[in-house]
From TrEMBL:
<feature type="coiled-coil region">
    <location>
        <begin position="64"/>
        <end position="91"/>
    </location>
</feature>
<feature type="transmembrane region" description="Helical">
    <location>
        <begin position="21"/>
        <end position="38"/>
    </location>
</feature>
<keyword id="KW-0472">Membrane</keyword>
<dbReference type="InterPro" id="IPR019734">
    <property type="entry name" value="TPR_rpt"/>
</dbReference>
<keyword id="KW-1133">Transmembrane helix</keyword>
<keyword id="KW-0812">Transmembrane</keyword>
<keyword id="KW-0677">Repeat</keyword>
<keyword id="KW-0175">Coiled coil</keyword>
<dbReference type="InterPro" id="IPR051685">
    <property type="entry name" value="Ycf3/AcsC/BcsC/TPR_MFPF"/>
</dbReference>
<dbReference type="InterPro" id="IPR011990">
    <property type="entry name" value="TPR-like_helical_dom_sf"/>
</dbReference>
<keyword id="KW-0802">TPR repeat</keyword>
<protein>
    <submittedName>
        <fullName>Tetratricopeptide repeat protein</fullName>
    </submittedName>
</protein>
Length: 239
């Protein structure tokens, strides 16, 4: 159909409507036109952003970079706490219990989740005649890390120190569930030695000696073994 004829037909159809109807139709057409313009503008703007910034997830990437920074800082802090913890251990080994406790408190004040600090503080308190607080701190270490062998050992040692031998034997066994620690075997041997139980004394002391022959010289001077020292089995073991 020719263009002229199409225009003529449109004029004829449009001319059939009243003025009011024409106004309504015109308004509807205007609204559609505005919607199309806004929609096109939105998609053009979105496509432009995508082209200019293909890594559009800026906020997420920023969070990831910040997270990596935090991980690096946490690693440095943990290394520092480990060094301070070694100082606390050294104080304890040197029987400077108050200094060990103070150093442990310094660590805890900076990081109350550093379980090793509670452990060394706890055993230092026990050796300072503060059994209740000492055990609370050792238990706190185990609450934060139930498989921390040194805390299990120290709990056994604290029980032994205060004459709670059955509990001590139980916790030495608990330590041996997670690590083969020479001093847990020695601890069990010393308790059985006090009880004059030659068989079990020799059994656990032999394990300790097999792990480190130097234990023989320590056992010779250990007063806990006095009740069994004259037995042939014990003498054969330490000679």
């Amino acid at each position: 159909m020719a263009l002229k004829n199409r225009k003529s037909i449109s004029s004829m159809l449009f001319g059939r409507f009243s003025l009011k109807a024409k106004i309504v139709i015109f308004c509807i057409l205007c609204i559609f036109a505005v919607i199309l313009v806004v929609k096109n503008s939105y998609w053009n703007r979105k496509n432009k952003i995508t082209v200019e910034n293909p890594n559009k997830n800026i906020t997420q990437n920023s969070v990831i970079r910040k997270s990596n920074t935090d991980i690096t800082q946490d690693k440095k802090n943990n290394e520092r706490f480990e060094e301070e913890y070694k100082e606390a251990q050294k104080f304890f080994s040197d029987k400077q219990y108050s200094k060990a406790i103070d150093k442990a408190d310094e660590i805890i004040n900076q990081n109350n989740k550093f379980y090793k600090a509670y452990n060394i503080k706890g055993i230092a308190l026990c050796y300072s005649n503060n059994y209740e607080e000492g055990m609370k701190n050792i238990d706190k270490a185990l609450q934060l890390n139930s498989n921390f062998g040194y805390a299990r050992f120290n709990k056994a040692l604290a029980y032994e120190l205060y004459g709670k031998y059955d509990d001590a034997l139980n916790w030495y066994d608990k330590d041996l569930e997670v690590e083969k620690y020479i001093w847990s075997y020695y601890g069990k041997a010393s308790i059985y030695g006090r009880r004059a139980d030659v068989l079990n004394t020799v059994k656990f002391l032999k394990t300790a000696i097999d792990m480190s022959p130097d234990i023989k010289s320590i056992a010779r001077e250990e007063k806990d073994f006095d009740p069994v020292k004259n037995s042939r089995e014990f003498q054969d073991l330490i000679k």
